[in-house]
């Protein structure tokens, strides 16, 4: 008996884990239960966790080696004492942002898929939240793939897409990048459109982000039409979980089989989140044919 309770938060993904204090070191049984719950629900929420930065780092390391933040628009880490921690905030001190993503919408994406080995997980810890707005949503990309029509599964089987590195989800250009005029030439990793999840072996649609995405080998119009249809399907509310933040919420998500987005919030409000992420591996293509899916062509 670990004393932990896991309660689903939506029909498609997300669960609340209660009866746990993440400041304590967690024994083998508890870790096994967390891993099992995470594999099943993809996004775990822990409420009332007032963690210091070292405590956030220690809990994050339970899930693997830390992956440092990608380049932000300002070109240097937000926390010089803890460069492995990223800050997501709209706050400015003397006109200088203390964190990334501002107060606007962050469009649907998954994190850092423009690199060959995108992070396997991310943890977001709410230190200060606005009274309303700034909700975050996740989508279950296993379910999204499963529910695609066979015709579309056949169309994307064996295909790869470009994951553009130029802009972050708030539309800001990353340091050192230049404007992309042709998505076929966008800088960034090429990943299979359908991946085999490295831990579960299950297929998941892997989209990254829509801006400057391009399906290799297609003409640009065909690629855009296909991507628009895939994104429309992937972000339907029936596949998503909505998080209304409270101070000291900690959310852990799997970055290979979910997408996320964030609502805008009042620029006069304060939102401060500290964030870590865990190193991932290269992503392999799912082969629908050898997996026995009978896809008409
Ligand atoms: C992120 C992110 C959303 C939010 O940290 O990767 O997209 O709710 N954050 O701030
Ligand atoms: Mn993100």
UniProtKB/TrEMBL annotation:
UniProt keyword annotations, A-Z: Dioxygenase, Iron, Metal-binding, Oxidoreductase
GO cellular component, one term: cytoplasm
Matching SUPFAM superfamilies: Clavaminate synthase-like
Stored Pfam families: TauD
EC number: 1.14.11.44
A molecular-function term among this protein's GO annotations: metal ion binding
Bilayer-crossing regions: none
Residue ranges annotated for the TauD/TfdA-like domain, each copy included: 6-276
Example GO biological process: sulfur compound metabolic process
Enzyme class label: oxidoreductase
PANTHER family xref list: ALPHA-KETOGLUTARATE-DEPENDENT SULFONATE DIOXYGENASE
Family under the similarity heading: Belongs to the TfdA dioxygenase family.
Name the record gives this protein: (R)-phenoxypropionate/alpha-ketoglutarate-dioxygenase
